[in-house]
Structures are given as structure tokens and as C-alpha cells.
Design goal:
single chain; alpha+beta; 3-stranded mixed β-sheet; 3 helices; 3 strands
Length: about 100
């Protein structure tokens, strides 16, 4: 799903992969370097595009993912507004 989202940003909004910033949410028992390599190779994005990882404190929750969870936040208000407007327009067009 994340790979599709990144390709969608590239294709429809001309966001370059070099400009994208990703963030990992990891459990304390995971190796951050291994997780970054996993997500970087799977998404085709340099490991330099990752911001500081968030490490979940011990004892919080039971579910884990072997490589953590990767987020691709939209940090541009202009881009976010454009995306939300396009989604709203598409949704309204499909129910009309």
C-alpha cells in the first residue's frame, strides 16, 4: 500500500522520491538499520530519506511487525490540501 502511495505521489503530484521523508515506528527489540534497509529496498527510496525513527517503549502493546511500521507523512500544507481536494472531488463525482 505504501509503495502504491509513493508511486501515486510521484505520478499525480510530481513529488520526487528524493524529496519524500519517511519515518519508522519500531519496537525496542528491532534493529533500526535492518528495518531501514528493508523499507528502503522495498520502496525504492534511499535510506537517507528516513527521519529519526520512533522507538516504542517496552511493555507497550503486544503486536509487532518484523520490520516495524513505515510512515510517509505529507509535510506540505499545499500538497495536502491539493490531495484532499482531489479526493473530495473524486468522491463527489462518483456518487453523483
Amino acid at each position: 500500500m505504501l509503495k502504491l502511495f509513493i508511486e501515486w505521489l510521484e505520478c499525480h503530484y510530481r513529488v520526487k522520491r528524493e524529496q519524500m521523508k519517511l519515518r519508522l515506528h519500531l519496537w525496542s527489540n528491532l534493529d533500526e538499520k535492518v528495518a531501514k534497509q528493508f523499507w528502503s529496498s522495498g520502496l525504492g527510496i534511499s535510506d537517507k530519506n528516513f527521519t529519526k525513527s520512533w522507538i516504542k517503549p517496552k511493555g507497550k502493546g503486544r503486536r509487532t511487525h518484523p520490520h516495524g511500521v513505515c510512515r510517509a507523512p505529507i509535510s506540505s500544507k499545499k500538497l495536502l490540501h491539493e490531495i484532499l481536494t482531489d479526493i473530495a472531488n473524486e468522491f463527489h463525482a462518483s456518487i453523483a
